[in-house]
UniProtKB/TrEMBL annotation:
CDD domains: NAT_SF (cd04301). InterPro entries: Acyl_CoA_acyltransferase, GNAT_dom. This is GNAT family N-acetyltransferase. Pfam families: Acetyltransf_3. Residues 9-171 form the N-acetyltransferase domain. PROSITE patterns: GNAT. It comes from Flavobacterium azooxidireducens. Transmembrane segments: none annotated.
Length: 176
């Protein structure tokens, strides 16, 4: 079994065929708060992004992978390593499952488990961090189930719907 394949999902590089999926996900206003997006992305911009998605994590400082159910090639979500810092062996990590009916079924948990193992075993990452809205109980539960610890609260960090809210910073120190 591949290091990026689990019992129910696998992670794969983005493909040109993912254009419609990424376009829909990036323009879904319900996830803009999580991705800190403020305006829609054009199809042209998403296409350009996908054309450059092949860049090495050491060059791009990020890695975005599609989350797919094992029985299909079609993406159900995305999982990212971002702000990759190879000198200090750390990166941010984020995940989104597009359709609400695919959430809470363990797909995100398995994807996160696969990416943490990949980050440890292949990229030799020492620590991962996640920025999570204090109101996002599902994400807080998911990340803490892997040992991420709350290390701080960024006050009034997110401006959404005319008001400010706090964002929590979670960190996982990966043991060798």
């Amino acid at each position: 079994m591949s290091s990026l394949q689990g019992k129910h999902v696998y992670l794969r590089a983005l493909e040109p065929d993912d254009l419609e999926f990424v376009y829909r996900l990036e323009n879904d206003t319900s996830v803009w708060e999580v991705s800190q997006t403020q305006m829609p992305y054009s199809m042209f911009l998403i296409k350009s992004y996908l054309e450059n998605a092949h860049k090495d994590i050491y060059e791009a400082k990020q890695l975005r992978l599609a989350i797919c159910k094992n029985e299909t090639f079609e993406a159900i979500g995305l999982i990212d390593l971002f702000d990759f810092d190879p000198k200090n062996n750390r990166a941010g990590i984020g995940i989104v499952i597009q359709n609400p009916e695919d959430r809470s079924l363990g797909f995100g948990k398995e994807a996160l488990e696969l990416l943490i193992a990949y980050a440890k075993n292949y990229l030799h990452i020492h620590q991962l961090f996640a920025n999570i809205s204090v109101t996002n109980l599902a994400s807080k539960t998911l990340f803490t189930s892997f040992g991420f610890e709350l290390i701080g609260i960024k006050k009034d960090w997110i401006f959404s719907d005319g008001d400010y809210s706090d964002e929590a910073l979670y960190q996982l120190i990966i043991k060798k």
